[in-house]
Each structure stands twice: as structure tokens, then as C-alpha cells.
Amino acid sequence: MTGSTPGPVPATAPILTVDDVAKTFTMHLQGGQRLAVLDGLSFVVGRAEAVVLGGASGAGKSTVLKLVYGNYLADRGRIVAHAPGGDVDMATAPPRAVLAARRDAVGYVSQFLRCVPRVGTLDVVAEPLVARGVDAEDARDRAARILTRLSIPERLWSLPPRPSRAASSSA
């Protein structure tokens, strides 16, 4: 193939394929008891899809996310991130391939997110784009589109105004 570039990726193309994944935890402080959390989990996420993991506390939602991100190893199955540089099986890939997939295709925000003090939401969302060389204003525009798509009200994008020193001292 000479001089050809890949065409656009169809909107229906998957970005993530999870196939027959199983995960068991060993409770070492409870006599080695084994806790089967997931068994036979399979799903596909398309490029234009928004997916919600729902369920009761302890159902395995966080485990699924940590498996997809490569923080946990699966006991069985495949977790394929269809990244720009090629497919990466997060369940079996070497550490450098997992890191590359995290940089290019897979993101994870813990439910225990610690927000950056004194930095507004718009700038937090734009920061990874700026770090990859995108112009700051373009990154903020793209971040605004993402926040709008997520239905996050614009009033929450910036930090609240801080009172002046005089106003603070009189309070």
C-alpha cells in the first residue's frame, strides 16, 4: 500500500470489546476465601455510544472499570481497546502497551476523584488536550462541547468568584 491513508472510522465501529471476562478475588485475611465477582461478562461499546454501568453496591461496576483500564488483571477473557494505533487487549498486553492505550484511547475517573483546587471544570477537561499540543483556546472549545454533550450546566464550568479581601474581612 503506497501513499494511501486510512479512511474515517465508521461511527458504528466499536471502541471497546469485552468478551467472556471473569474476575475472582482471593480474601487472604478471610482464610483464602475466593469471591467470584464477574463470570462471562461480554459487551461491546460503539464510538457514538454512551454507556451506564448500573447495579447495587458490590455488584462489580468498579471492578469492570478497573479491568477495562488495566488496573486489574482478568482471570479469563479479552478486553480489547480499539485504539488509534491498533487493538490492545488490556487483559494480556504488556505494561507499555497498556500505558499507550491509556494515553490514546482509554480513560478512567475514579468515584473518589480529587478535584484540582482552584481550577475550573472547563480547564480540567481541556488539560489533556493542551498536554498533547492542542491550542489552549481550541482545547477549551472542545472541552465546552464535551461538557455540553454531558448536560453539565455552564454555570458549573468555572470556579465561583472569590470575594475581595475587603469583603472577606468584613464578613
Task: Outline the structure in words.
- The structure is a single chain.
- This protein starts with 13 loop residues before the first strand and ends with a helix.
- The model has no long low-confidence stretch (mean pLDDT about 85).
- The chain has a 4-stranded antiparallel beta sheet with strand order 2-1-3-4.
- It is an alpha+beta fold and about 170 residues long.
- It contains 5 helices and 4 strands, in the order ββαββαααα.
- The protein has helices at about 60-70, 95-105, 120-130, 135-150, 165-170, and strands at about 15-25, 35-45, 75-85, 85-90.
- The radius of gyration is 21 Å and the shape is globular.
- It has 2 domains: about 15-105, Rossmann fold, CATH 3.40.50; about 120-155, no CATH class.
- Helix content is about 30%, strand content about 25%.
- This is Alpha-D-ribose 1-methylphosphonate 5-triphosphate synthase subunit PhnL.
- Pfam families: ABC_tran.
